[in-house]
What does this fold into?
Amino acid sequence: MKFAAHLLTATLLMATPALAQNPMTDAMDAEQKAMETVPQGRLAALLKTPEAVASDAVKVSYTRDWLAAQPAGAGGDQFQCLAEALYFEARGESVKGQFAVAEVILNRADSPDFPSSVCGVINQGTGRKYACQFTYTCDGRAETISEPRAYARVAKVASIMLAGAPRTLVDGATYYHTTHVNPSWSRRLNKTASIGVHQFYVSPTRTASN
It folds into this structure.
C-alpha cells in the first residue's frame, strides 16, 4: 500500500493545476492513471487484502497424500492456463516439483520482464515454432490431455498457487530446464534450486518483485 500511496502522491503533484477546479475528481483520475502503469501481478501483491495475506501463511505439504486431500482444482482462464502448463511441463514430477514449476510461472507474471498474466507468460512466443517459452505450446503437436488423474493433481496445484500459497522452493527463479538438456542460456544465470528433473535459475539482475 505504501507503494500505491507514493504513486498517488507523485501523480497529484503533476496534476496540481487541475485540482484547483475539481480536487476530488481529478485526484481519483490521477490515482487511476498511476495504478494502470503498474503490472497487474505486482499491483495484486501491493493491494492484498488481509485475507489474502493470511493465506500466504498457510503451510503446504508437498506430498501426494496432502494433495489428494485438497479440493478439486477450479477457476477461470488463468487457472486453466496454469493447470495445462503444469500438466505438459511437470505431470511426471513429484508434487514438490510441480509446485516449483508453478512458482516459476507466477514469478514471471510478477516480473516486469515478462507478460503480466499467467496466460500471457505461458503463451509468450507461441506461434513461432520452437521460439516460444514453453515448448509444448509451439512444438506442432495438439495439446491433448490423455491422463485425467495426472491433470486432476496438477489442477489442484494450480488452484492452491493462485489462491496465494507461499513461494519458497525456487528462491524467485524465473527460468528452468530439465536435467536432460544443458541450454547455453543457463550459463548466464544464477542457479537457485534443483528439484526432481528440473534446474531453476534467476537472472543476475533479478528485480525486487521476485
